[in-house]
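>> Question from a student workshop board

For tomorrow's exercise we were told to take the sequence and the ligand below, predict the bound structure, and bring the output to class. My setup keeps failing. Could a helper post the expected result so I can at least see what it should look like? The ligand is pyridoxal-5'-phosphate.
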Amino acid sequence: MQKELMKNVYLDNAATTKVRPEVVAAMLPFYTESYGNASSLYRFAQEAHKALEDARATVAKCIGAQANEIIFTGGGSEADNMALRGVAKAYAKKGKHMITTAVEHHAVLHTLEGMAKEGKIELTVLPVDEFGQITAQQVAEAIRPDTILVSVIFANNEVGTINPIAEIGAACRAADVLFHTDAVQAVGHVPVDVAEMNIDLLAMAAHKFHGPKGVGALYVRKGVRLPPLITGGGQERGKRAGTENVPGIVGLATALEMQVAHMQEVSQQVQTKRDRLIAGILETISDVKLNGHPTQRLPNNVNVSIRYIEGESILLMLDLNGIAASSGSACTSGSLDPSHVLLAMGLPHEIAHGSLRLTLSEFTTDEEVDYVLEILPEIVKRLRAMSPLYTK
Ligand SMILES: *Cc1c(COP(=O)(O)O)cnc(C)c1O
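>> Workshop helper replied:
Here is what the output should look like for this input. Compare the format with yours to find the bug.
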């Protein structure tokens, strides 16, 4: 394969994204000039305080919420933990039953499984269909008198499948059960409106939409009782202790505002590249299957199973050719367990093992898509030639 090599072809945007230069520029003054503690009362801290509250209003506006319904956190995992552990604590008198799905991110699934093991909750894990989707009817049927929370991932981080969130929200509201959604992959990428969709709690993370790492937010609908997860000082109206990460929060709000302003146009462009990549892979490689929903999927997600070879070997070969991709979820690569998401979708172990995720961004170029379509079939051919499973 003596093709001209490209470098840094980054196709792992579901794991994290590049921070926009404009976002970095918006953050910088809050490190070097207006670095006062946003909770201090003197004038030097006023700019930081104002930036914090402006950011809160911006984030709220982008998801159809009110400013006082936004709590800034240290990322998506923390926001999920705060919602799940908080509801278990605050609503213990009503019951301890929670409902989730088999395809949640580990920030939700491991947290809930841990809570169930400790006896804090009783957990129902709903199965998904072959596309990784659940229905509102499944949720409605699983609700019991002692159910206090339903937690369903908005858009899946591995296969990109988008769940019928508005319908699930309506079902939960009708049954008077709180509804949390891990929207870390959705916010900034597809339209999200917490009021319209009857969402009570929603987690987001800035680094999944070209903002900085280590900062996120939890939307908590007015009227929902939620104790703090991190205790200490009275920041975030007593909901999240710790000196506010003002630069990070400004970065989150700036990035989200930019995403939402151009969402339709950008997602159309990304989707066109995604579809070209999918079509090219299906055309040039035999025994390959697209994972996830064919249409109700994130505009930037490609996930395929390539039979007779290991996802890990494909990743290594792609890496040698300058392409950064992922097999299954980033958190589990490194271990050889097949993805829990693909298994829940009914894929046999050996096929789940050969899965490859390529996630694009608006910074992905047509040349990069061409390059992958040139390199990947050759890699597959080479690996299959060495595979004892491949006998064609
Ligand atoms: C990345 C991700 C998380 C975790 O967010 P962090 O900011 O890394 O803690 C949670 N849920 C989903 C769906 C994700 O994609």
